Amino acid sequence: MAATGRARGPGTDHEDLVSVTAAARVDARRLWLRHEAMARHGATAAGGVNRQALSVQEAQAWQLLIGWGRELGLMPATDAVGNLFLRWPGRDPLAAPVLTGSHLDSQPTGGRFDGVYGVLAGLEAVQALQEAAHVPARPIDIVAWMNEEGSRFAPGMMGSSVFSGARGLQEVLAVTDADGVAVAEALADHAAAFADLPCWPLQRPVHAYLEAHIEQGPLLEREGLSVGIVTGIQGKRTFSVTVAGQEAHAGTTPSSQRQDALLAAVRIISGLVAWCHDPQDLVRFTVGRLDVLPNAPSVVPASVRFSIDLRHPDSQRLCHLGDGILAVCEAQAGPCRVTVTELSNAQSLEFPASIRQLLSACANDLQISHMDILSAAGHDARYLHEVCPTGMIFVPCKGGVSHNEAESATASDLAAGARVLTQALVALTR
Fold it and tell me: Which one, of 237, 238, 219, 239, lies nearest residue 229 by Cα?
């Protein structure tokens, strides 16, 4: 059964009344306090969050979320890649579920709303529906996807990509973090702490997916609007570049005889900046991580590894820029050797009009100010888009700041997004 794009239809007057009543049950204070409680797990001194994928802190966040879910009669479960689900069975427990959620992991200096808002908005929506005495015709699954950020294990969005079949489980399990710990090892330790949870199969049928999220940009705040209806996600390619040189004594080795991997990396990065220069300022090129070996003051660097995050809303332009990276690296490597490994390649996408129209109609019904908006950041919705009708709801964040301990949002905006989500879930679970 395809997801409907209408907020209401013939003969649905009762359900329309239920959806508005349920949306009104969204409790801004309750939603805010849950964010505050969740932020204690991985809290940083500067008021942010460091909650890495499959860490002790994320396990603590799981325990808290599972406890809240059980208070509402939701059934927790996991799967082979470490996604967490809280199920409200509905009237037909065997029907394909509507999924809603996001992720609980963060950047090392992350904020209190990125990812977790989508999970807690889903929980708030379910509680609001229950308080309105509405039982959905099909299950609703609140989901927390594993390793969306890609901070501890690269690339990100591991849980949603394996769930959707875009990546293989074994491929993901073999990935290691900076300390050499493999996903398989970290996942085994994590699973042991939740041995009582049932393990559901991967790649199950899904009726629809909705993801609420802070915007991570300045547009909604600038326009004074409470909700963004996300039209799609711009494309992204990620790479790992390794520059191999040779260790040497900093005081005795002439410059002409050095194979300095760090100087080569600097030349390469400068060349890549020039290659990606865009007068329209649409290209997003970032080197966010650089590791130097042996990283000693008096030793010529022997090896450098750095990351590339490349984004553009036009898939053709993204393809052209990404395909030219190897040539730029080789041209600037000098006496060193360079290896470029592509980690992910996700083209730009557009969410289905039916879901966007539904979300807009819900916002109109609730008299919540909104606009269409393109997501410049990647989200798990990218992978769910390949398997079911998918949409996203954005709410403003102060100054557009995200992936930062200063990340902030208002309780009223968080509640507005949850109200739109609640009404949309009524329509999608009829």
Answer: 219
Q: By the 8 A CB rule, do 241 and 348 touch?
A: no
Q: What is the pLDDT of residues 15-66, one digit of tens each?
A: 666 767 899 999 999 999 999 999 999 999 999 999 999 999 999 999 999 9
- Mapped to the 3 state alphabet, what secondary structure does 261-324 carry? HHHHHHHHHHHHHHHCCCCCCCCEEECCCEEEECCCCCEECCEEEEEEEEEECCHHHHHHHHHC
Partnered with residue 308 across adjacent β-strands are 239
What residues contact residue 177 under an 8 Å CB cut-off, 6+ apart? 152, 153, 186
- Cα R_g (the chain), whole angstroms: 23
The pLDDT tens digits for 345-358 are 989 999 999 999 99
28 by DSSP, 3-state: which? helix
Residue 196: which of 63, 94, 56 has the closest Cα? 63
What DSSP designation does 419 have? H
Please tell me whether residues 270 and 362 are part of one structural domain.
no
Domain identity same for 103 and 77: yes
Last residue of a domain, one of 346, 365, 397: 346
Cα-based distances in Å from 98 to 1, 83, 128, 355, 428? 12, 16, 16, 13, 7
Same domain, 61 and 76: yes
Paired with 208 in beta bridges are 98
Residue type, 98: V
Phi, psi at residue 305, to the nearest 5°? -125, 130
Last residue of a domain, which of 346, 373, 393?
A: 346
* Proportion of the chain in helix, strand, coil states, percent, rounded to 5: 35, 25, 40
How many structural domains are present in the chain?
2
Could you tell me if residue 107 is inside a domain?
A: yes
Please, are residues 366 and 125 in contact by the beta-carbon 8 Å criterion?
A: no
CA distances, 349 to each of 101, 192, 378, 393 (Å): 20, 37, 11, 16
The DSSP output letter for 82 is -
Amino acid identity of residue 16, one-letter, is D
pLDDT digits (tens, 9 = 90+) for 123-132: 999 999 999 9
Indicate the pLDDT class of residue 344, thresholds 50, 70 and 90: confident
Element (H, E) at 87: strand 84-88
- Contact present, 166 and 70 (Cβ < 8 Å): no
Write the CATH number for 47: 3.40.630.10
Judge whether 423 and 19 are in contact, CB under 8 Å.
yes
Question: Does 279 sit behind a cis peptide bond, omega within 30 degrees of 0 on the bond before it?
Answer: no
